[in-house]
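Entry 14. Two folds queued back to back today. First construct below, sequence then structure tokens.
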Amino acid sequence: MKRVAVIYGGWSSEREVSLSSGGQMAKAARAAGYDVVEIDAGRDLAAQLSEAEPDVVLNGLHGPWGEDGCVQGLLEVMGLPYSHSGVLASALAMDKLKSKAVYREAGLPIAADKRVTRVEAAASHPLKPPYVVKPVAEGSSFGVLIVREGANSPPQELLGSSWHYGDNLMAEEFIPGRELTVGVLGDRALAVTEITTLRDYYDFDAKYQAGGSQHVIPANLPAHVTEAAMDAALRAHQALGCRGATRSDFRYDDKRDRLVILETNTQPGMTPTSLVPEQAAFVGMSFEALVAWMIEDASCQR
């Protein structure tokens, strides 16, 4: 019987989401017949893994350290096959500016952007409003600010004591319209989901609180938009060098028929409200089967 270490938790801003994802995956892995050990990842993760002696690591971590290439590098050094993307792809996808450079080279449709520090972004508008300010390397919409058209001043929240998302930011053209997402498993794009929410945008609460958003699958879109989104998600996955499961997020301005890729998540959520499990179910793959697929797809470079 294959022994699987499910690593989750950690200490990033996405710890609570990771605990939920990891717990769900561990439960499914046991139901699929694997010998499962759960590990709340600490800075002594190497020792935790050595003690657990797994055959495979199922990575349920989210956010910095867990999905930016750091833990992937540790697992490579230890020679442990692990789920999801490798070191370089994880690092590229986590950095929004670097991933957009890859998208640009691959000919994918992107929004205009500019690298700024938080002091610069608070001092003057880096782009003409409306625009969005995002931390370069955070997930789950942490630290995202929307500057609306007609805003008299740039976002002063960036200088407040509650800002914990670093100094390196990206200002990005705001794309009006619809929020879309596409999951990819290996070499297959799954489906297009439209996400609707009554909140200002698809923020952390909309993503993870019950009733925070609604997922329409398949999205009610013109056929050419569905095809373009699925094609772009797969191309992004391949251009970044990803493996396993990813999820790419898009905005679609239906008034201008403009589709733009925003980012690719190499550690998509695996909670009850998560999008990739919903898309997998839509194409006939149960949650248990999805987790088993991730385990069997695990690899490393040793």
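Second construct, same run, same settings:
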Amino acid sequence: MAKSKLALIRETHLTNNCPECFNQDLNLKFYQKHLYSRLFHRTTSEISHELTCNTCKSRIYPVGWTPDIERSVEYFQKALEPAKARLEFRPLFFVLVLLGIALAGTLAYFYLQGLL
């Protein structure tokens, strides 16, 4: 089973007012999802974000956003440059593929020689 990890892409400070404590000390973080397995490492195109207040230490969910916060988040989402979605195979994958090819070749050789 592949393990998923959220990698931090960008962290910015917003000067918008917090809906909870009304201070201007917000922190916006963007994450990109990565999947790790023994056979591959996959970078997905799935992007998530988290908005927290540094003063009251509360996480601010999209339901409680003001229109100013929404505009700021949209702006930073458009300016975001995530890593390209890709699939990278690990060395174990190549070893298993080579062993499979060698086994298939050996079986074909024995079959053509009449030993099977």
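Quick look at the second one. The mean pLDDT is 92. The CA atoms of residues 40 and 69 lie 38 Å apart.
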